[in-house]
Amino acid sequence: MIIAIDGPSGAGKSTVAKAVAKKLGFSCLDTGAMFRSVAWQADQLGVSLEDGEALGSIARDYQISFQHEPGDPAPRKVLMGGVDVTSQIRTAQIDRAVSSVASVPGVRQALLEQQRRIGNAGDYVVEGRDIGTVVFPNAAVKVFLTASNEERARRRVAQNLERGVGSTDYEEVLADIIRRDEADSSRAAAPLRPAEDAEHIDSTAFSVEQVIDRICQLAQAARDSE
Ligand code: DC
Q: Would the pLDDT of 92 be above 90?
């Protein structure tokens, strides 16, 4: 079964995806980490963000993999072509570069194939921007998770502080969130938008536990109707 969680940056998708996966015994797939890995590799190779062809080749040629610890649905490590990039893909520099990379159709196509291959191998909570619309349009559960810009910026700062990587300047993070939403929603290829049959949840209005419980209810209902 696939549970698709889409929504803008900082809406709480990762936290919710991990908790739902843990409760249901599913694995998690963070598709944003895959776009970030391509952006990181482009930087390593000195590939310009304008060079769509070269960015597409990176996404096709490098295998992105996730290392899991037994019993933990969230991967401990993200590997790009075998190199551990877990922390390097969370820097402010990658935050700035990644939406250009994500707007390249060749990158999206290559990652779509990797995402489907991973997700089809088991029960997954998959988080991203186009999971319910493009990657897994037949997902059993589709959620579109949002929160106010300010709340999302506060959460991203807290997350960066905890991880010890990325900007911890609230105004900088808020500006980046607004800029990235605009880029992700207005691009031609698989823009950020809710699937028609997605359940909209505004996480500003609910506690994390309420959001998790609601998604687990939806999964149970989907399972009962199978
Ligand atoms: O969720 P995140 O902030 O780690 O995502 C990083 C970038 O990747 C973000 O700018 C949007 C893009 N992305 C995308 O276009 N499609 C996805 N399925 C996931 C992420």
A: no
What separation in Å is there between the alpha carbon of 226 and the centre of ligand 1? 31
Q: What percent of the chain has pLDDT over 90?
A: 79
Residue 131 has which token pair? 């999971």
Q: Which of 105-109, 151-155, 184-188 has the highest mean pLDDT?
A: 105-109
The answer on pLDDT for 126 being more than 90 is yes
CA dist 25 to 47, 64, 69, 125, 162, Å? Answer: 39, 23, 13, 10, 25
Distance CA 149, CA 174 (A): 7
Mutate to test the pocket of ligand 1, among 37, 90, 98 (most ligand atoms within 8 A of CB): 98
Ligand 1 atom with minimal separation from the 36 CA: 6
Strand duo 83-84 + 77-80: pairing = antiparallel
The beta-strand segments (E) located in 7-163 are 27-30, 64-67, 77-80, 83-84, 124-128, 141-146
Say how many Å lie between the CA of residue 75 and the centre of ligand 1: 17
